Amino acid sequence: MPAVASFRSERATPATGLTRSRRTAAGTHSPLGQRVVDALRKALFSGSYKPGERLVEDRLASEMGVSRVPVREALRVLAAEGLIDIAPRRGATVTALSSVAARDTIEVRATLEGLNARLAARRHSPATAAALESVLAMGGRAMAKRDARTLNTLNARFHDVLANAGGNAVLAEIMRTLRTRTTSFFAEMSRKRAKETWEEHAAIVRAVIDGDEALAELLATRHVVNAGAQVIAAIGGPAQ
Amino acid sequence: MPAVASFRSERATPATGLTRSRRTAAGTHSPLGQRVVDALRKALFSGSYKPGERLVEDRLASEMGVSRVPVREALRVLAAEGLIDIAPRRGATVTALSSVAARDTIEVRATLEGLNARLAARRHSPATAAALESVLAMGGRAMAKRDARTLNTLNARFHDVLANAGGNAVLAEIMRTLRTRTTSFFAEMSRKRAKETWEEHAAIVRAVIDGDEALAELLATRHVVNAGAQVIAAIGGPAQ
DNA sequence: TGCCAAAATATTGTATACAATCGGCCGGAC
DNA sequence: GTCCGGCCGATTGTATACAATATTTTGGCA
Lengths: 240, 240
Hints:
- The structure is a homodimer of 240-residue chains.
- With 240 residues, chain A is mainly alpha-helical.
- Chain A has nine helices and three strands, in the order αβααββαααααα.
């Protein structure tokens, strides 16, 4: 069974003679390559593919009902994000994050989340405060309901909102990438740490709203370190 | 005149009947896509293409003597590195770093270089010390000769060696990317600041070798901020 | 003259075809 | 039995062809 659903069930009717008929036709199709990226990213996050597993272009193309060209381009993009590895002439494999790489990633993330929280505190405004409080409230409700799935989504949302509050687009983009690379690991154990996670989120928000740069930085950094320590303990131990 | 040289002057002789003749033939050709990436990166750094300029696939393909396929894949890679922008159906353009984006990039770079210097100081060893001193010495010689071109190369080398000394591969990769994005700006004015640059380099190395984490971090961060301030003053001013 | 629509052109997006290389499998020599 | 060399299937790399969309040009009209 294909791990990803085909989004082009029928052929693009090449027989139809409507060359350049109506423009904009029905809905602006985003390029297939982009859609393949999204589909693969989703599949990777959901754990459909295991680390180290080979991603054969032809198979992916069939599963999605497209040719190999968009698949290849999608694979390059995912490789740039660090989600897969591509070896020349040997194809793509799902990145198997070593415990060393995990530790390195967390170390960088901790620092950058700290910087971002500091910036957010420096530039705090009523608007960002409201956005942060909103996500925080939703997180609280989801936790009360033990809704782990929503909680994961909200966790990502929280970090996105916080990144926006920092006001540094370059920083936000890098943090997003680093986060996606470790998503699978953190998702695994986030259930166990849900309570602590959202308490830490709340504390960070408070510091940001208070404009306390140093505290915001400290808490955000520690937040990543805390979660990271648990991840590393779970998967890496001394050496993987 | 093409901005990049063709590395395939003659066709791949498709008429020749040698199907799978000798294996490995003459030298292991790296994939064309990779070579196109290298060629384009070089061209972008050398300033052959101006910010905002369109990069038409067909033209690039002709100039390099390859088909559009490797060119397209190369463009995706460069887009992921932030060197170019790709808009669907509208092609690729050379990234025009706004003054805001420049400031953001420098802010992140400053923090990460600081983190890396701290790590390098923590993990300092005779081997890394020797490597750092070596680049430092070469930089001194190049500066004595007023060899601006070599100096630029050595500057990149210095930061690479320092990144290695930090021992965090993820961090090193991110810093490398950030550095490439701002290369053109820094190259412009590095001549004026050559003396200060290498004095700062020397100070950082000393702190690293001494294992003085806090000082190494401070100096490395300040190094980026100092150079960055000059860049921003030159290009951005209050608003670009 | 200036502006709008529609054809003509340029360029990107996708599919298919073929070439090149990798990895495993088989057979023979020692 | 094991190791080496070469065939064979599987898979990636590249080129070409065509389809779809963006951009420019052109022509008519107010």
